[in-house]
Amino acid sequence: VVNDEELKKRIAEELALERARRDSEAQKRRLKQEQMYVRDEFGKLLEQERISSNEHLTRAILRERAATEEERQKAQRFAKQLEEKDRELKKHDAYYKEQLARLEERSAQFYKVTTEQYQKAADEVSARFKRYESHPICADLQDKILQCYQQHTQETLSCSALASQYLRCVNHAKQ
């Protein structure tokens, strides 16, 4: 009976070992499956993160391109406005230069006409009115009387003959 019992015991042990081995293999398979599941899930998470990161990057690039394009268009608008202002300024400059030339021409014509009219009026006045030359009359007698008065400051009557002669000369010149 001992053999049977021993045999039963051994069989029971072998069965327990077999079960333990199967359980161990089943655990290994479950562990492998769990590792595969975790690896797959982790891979999915990484892929989602990569996609999300790419989307953010793509959006950022698109925003930057849009901003760059907007700046380029703004610069083009400003350049066109500047060109328009420049054309306008050149047009005004040409207009004012033309006006200045006209004014200078009119001024020159006015000066010429005025000068001609002045000369004509001066010639008419000269032709109408003869010029009279005035010469001091009886200048030699006048000088003699002054010298006499200076020499005879106290005796002015001694110069009366010269004074009479001077008055006759002046009256004769008046006639």
Automatic annotation (TrEMBL):
<dbReference type="GO" id="GO:0061617">
    <property type="term" value="C:MICOS complex"/>
</dbReference>
<dbReference type="InterPro" id="IPR052632">
    <property type="entry name" value="MICOS_subunit_Mic19"/>
</dbReference>
<keyword id="KW-0999">Mitochondrion inner membrane</keyword>
<protein>
    <recommendedName>
        <fullName>MICOS complex subunit MIC19</fullName>
    </recommendedName>
</protein>
<keyword id="KW-0449">Lipoprotein</keyword>
<keyword id="KW-0496">Mitochondrion</keyword>
<keyword id="KW-0519">Myristate</keyword>
<keyword id="KW-1015">Disulfide bond</keyword>
<dbReference type="InterPro" id="IPR007964">
    <property type="entry name" value="MIC19/MIC25"/>
</dbReference>
<dbReference type="Pfam" id="PF05300">
    <property type="entry name" value="MIC19_MIC25"/>
</dbReference>
<dbReference type="GO" id="GO:0007007">
    <property type="term" value="P:inner mitochondrial membrane organization"/>
</dbReference>
<keyword id="KW-0472">Membrane</keyword>
